[in-house]
Amino acid sequence: MTKHHITPVWFFVGLLLAIYGILILVSGLAEWSATSKTVLGEYHAPVWWGGLMAVIGIIYIVAFRPRRG
Amino acid sequence: MIAMAMTQKVISLSPVDMAIIAIYFLAVLGIGFYLKRFAKSGEDFFMAGREMTAWVAGLSFLSANLGSLELLGWAGSSYQYGILAAHWYWIGAIPAMVFLGLVMMPFYYISRTHSVPGYLNLRYGRATSGLSAISFAVMTILMSGVNMYAMAVVMKVVLGWNIHFSIWVSSLTVGIYVASGGLFSAIFNEVVQFFLIWFGALLIPILGLIETGGWSGMVARIQANFPGKDFTHAWSTLGDFTNNPMGMHWTGIVFGLGSVISMGYWTTDFLVVQRVLAAKDIRSAKIAPIIGAFFKMAVPFIVILPGLLGLAVLSERLVPESAMQAGQHSYNEVLPLMLARYCGPGLLGLGVTALVAGFMAGMAGNVSAFATVWTYDIYRPFLRKTDAHYVSMGRWCTMIGLIISIATAYLAMGFASIMDYVQALFSFFIAPLFGTVLLGMLWKRVTSAAGFCGLLAGTLTSTLMFFAMRADPKWVAVFALSPHAQGLAQAMYQALWSCLVCILVTVLVSYFTKPRPDSELKGLVMGVTDLPKEGALPLLQRPLLWGAVAIAALLVLQWIFW
């Protein structure tokens, strides 16, 4: 991709993962004390899975951000 | 085949789920518009500038195949047949992907062809290329439409979405971003889709195994729920057709699926091969399918395992589509049911987005492959124009191909059985095409006339066997070696025999016709092509090493799940 100086696809992956991760994390925190309707809801999967996605997304954004020049 | 009975929708979406889905649509359109400025030339629009790295080419190669209908369908198949369904991800894919990378990609890449029909034109001439190009173009667009309708029905059943909304909104989104950025857009979104599929689906097996207490706990629950049936052994039940729920024998798996159908699909289906042709150099082109192979091997964890977990934990019994009554759920709904079981607001939206993304990436793959084959292999041979004209043609036929797909989707709505026939038609060409391409690459004695005759003979053989087995079941025992062979087993043997017929006819006709001189075959055939040696590369960069590691990992998996 160097010929066209296109922003690496990994940057877009990171952006989407970060946005989704934050949304899911916040949604999970908001539902923390509510009675879960899903099996194994007591594990609060949205919190740790959303957090994981957000962390990976931010790493990708930083590592593959468009550089000047 | 597709759920027509009324049933309660499986998943209810919250506002955060809807936001996640909406963001995905905006993201793919945004990526498409961003990439439009880079898709100026034909090489850019149709081949993504041939600049993709091994990882990007490899992940998009896998993603183009990993459509959501496949995800849903194979999860349903694993509920129905158990771990036997994993063969389509293991022996039915890995050897072929490694073979493509190590043996066939050098010829595809060195010939600088833009498509599989393009290679056939260089090797055999216009007749063989034309037969392949027209059949591929027609089948791809028909398959795209049939899949579009099937997906829309799934969305209706699972989410309660209006069928027309699903068809039009998803299709037009795909059309806009592919017409804008060409193969760049298709590949970028396939890589994004790859990550969404994994993050959307991976929680199901993780939470499922927690609930069952691990693999052995899951197996114990399955045995308690279905006494006397074996769903968790991949090979030990294949010694007899009647010993397993698929009605399959190991010869069908090894020689039909592993040797012919998988080879035919992974090495000649232009939809997947196009992604590897876009690689930036020959080493990347060789290793990209091998990178894909490692991830393909892991896909059963998110597709097959949920089906097995469904057997263990779901209180209701799922039924075939054809036997569904009101209030029941079909095999194909096992993945959405497991998604609804474990995933609350947010995660549910992510899972649904993964399914929608899978569908849209599959559509994008179909229309971008169609645009390339139509423009380069059918249109350009007859009309010589400027490069800019072909790019414009590519954009237009992306949208036209899309409209034809939508029309086919509505046709499928009226004739459910059309899906079976379109899928069967597609399979008629794949197995013989593998024989034609493989012989062309490995044996310089094959003549142009022989290539055409072999491909035609193999295709006609496959077609005749299919209709014969449908018309009179006695032919099932003849062609599929057992009267107990089910649909999948019949397809395996159909592929095997048609490929053998293709090879036999090609060899025979070659000996009676004149071969081309070596000078015309340079870059196309083994023996007259300078293939780059791997010895100059550092050990860890050699495709041969990683291909060997992939095969070793495959063998370990077979031993573990024997």
A few lines on this structure:
Chain A has 2 helices and no strands. With 69 residues, chain A is mainly α. Chain B is 72% helix and 0% strand.
Give the key terms.
heterodimer; A: 69 residues; mainly alpha; 2 helices; 0% strand; rod-shaped; B: Sodium/glucose cotransporter; 72% helix; globular
Please describe what this structure looks like.
The complex is a heterodimer of chains A (69) and B (562). By secondary structure, chain A is mainly α. Chain A has helices at residues 9-30, 45-64. Chain A has one domain. In chain A, helix 1 (9-30) packs antiparallel against helix 2. The model of chain A has no long low-confidence stretch (mean pLDDT 88). Chain B has a domain at 15-33 and 49-321 and 335-416: Sodium/glucose cotransporter, CATH 1.20.1730. Chain B contains 23 helices and no strands. With 562 residues, chain B is mainly alpha-helical. Chain A binds chain B through residues 1-4, 6-7, 9, 12-13, 15-17, 19-20, 23-24, 27-28, 31, 36-41, 43, 45-46, 49-50, 53, and chain B through 16, 19-20, 23-24, 27, 31, 34-35, 38, 44, 49, 51-53, 56, 184, 187-188, 191-192, 195-196, 199, 203, 207, 210-211, 313, 340-347, 350.
